[in-house]
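Workshop exercise sheet. Pairs work together: one partner reads the sequence aloud, the other fills in the structure field after running the prediction. Swap roles for the next sheet.
Pair: D.N. / O.F.
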Amino acid sequence: MNPIVVIGEGGHSKVIQDIIFAIGCYRIIAILDDKYKDVYNRDEVLYGPISVVSSIIDRDPNTKLIIAIGNNQVRAEIGYRQEFCVM
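Structure field:
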C-alpha cells in the first residue's frame, strides 16, 4: 500500500482517515498535528508535530500528504509553511 501522512487530528481529519481506510490503497504512516510536542509511535503510526514532515518525506519521497484541516484559512497557512516546501 502507498504511504500517506495526515496533517491534522481534529474532526475533519477523522472523516478523511475513514475515507483513506475505505479506499484501501493507502496506509497512514503518520498523523501530524502541532498539539504534539514530541514524536511517538502508536499502532505503527507516527504521531508528532507538523515540523517532522520533512524527515518523513526524506525517508520516502513517494509518501503522499493530505492536509485534513476543516478551516480553510488554517489549512492554507499550513500548506504555505516551510516544511511543505520540500515538494
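Discussion prompt: The beta strands are 2-7, 26-32, 40-42, 45-48, 64-67. What would you look at next?
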